[in-house]
Structure prediction request, 289 residues.
Amino acid sequence: MAQSLFQTQVPTVPRPAGERWQDVVDPVWARLRNEADAAAEREPLLASFMVASVLGHDSLEAVIGARIAARLDHAELPGALIRAAYREAVAADRTIPQAVRADIMAVVDRDPATTRTLEPVLYFKGFHALQAHRLAHWLWAQGQRDFALYLQSRVSAVLGVDIHPAVPVGRGIFFDHATGIVIGATAVIEDDVSILQGVTLGGTGKETGDRHPKIRRGVLIGAGASVLGNIEVGHCARIAAGSVVLKPVPHNTTVAGVPAKVVGEAGCAEPARAMDQMFDDNIFAGADI
Prediction:
C-alpha cells in the first residue's frame, strides 16, 4: 500500500545511466539525493516535499538557494528574487559552493543528533542562517549593501541569528541550535569553528573602527558566551559556556568565567570537532577565576 502511494506521488527522477547517485563526482550532492529518495519512500506523505526540496533540482546549489529563499520569502522581497541572487552569487564565487559542502559535513560530523546531510539542508535554521549570510556577504562585497542588510534583518527576524553582512566566515562552520547568535560587523570567523546558541561576538561600547573579535580556526564557543572587543581567540581554543571574554585567548587553551581566564589546555587537538564542553573537576584547581 505504502509503495503504491509512493509511486503515485514521486515523479521519476533521471539518473546517470548505469550509475548510482553515490558514484557521481559530487559526493555530498549524491548523498543528499539518496537520503531524500529514502525519506520519500519511507514517509510517502512527504514525497512531494522531497521532490520540491531536493529531487526536483539539478544541483546542490539550486537546493540551497531554493531552501533559504523559501524560509526568507516575504511580500517585501519575494523568495524568487533571493533565489536569483543566490544563483548569481554561486556562479560568480566558487568558494560559496565549496563552503556549503564543508558546512553540511561539519554538521554531520559534529552534531550527535544528526546522521544525514538531509537534516541541515532541509531543517536546521543555523545552517540556513549561515548560507543566507554567505549570500549577504557576497552582496555586501558587490556594493549591494541594502540588499545585504535586508537579508540580515530578515534572517534575524525569521531564524533568530544576527550576523552583519560584512563579516567574513570560513568553511566548515557549525552553528549548533543557533538561536540568539549575534556577530558584529568587524568580526572574523576562520575555518572549522563551532558556535552554540546565545553567543555574542560584539564590541565593548560605541567605539568605531575594528572593534570585534577575530575567531581563529578550530575554535569552540560554548552556549551563552560573550566575546567582546577587538581581541583574538587563538586557533583551537575552547570558550566555556556562559563566559565573558574580554582579553585575547591563547591558542589551544580553555578559558572560563566572568571575566574569562585561562583554566587549562583545550583538552584535545580539535575542540570544534570534538564539541566537548565538559571540564575535569581538577581543571579549576589553583585557577584564578
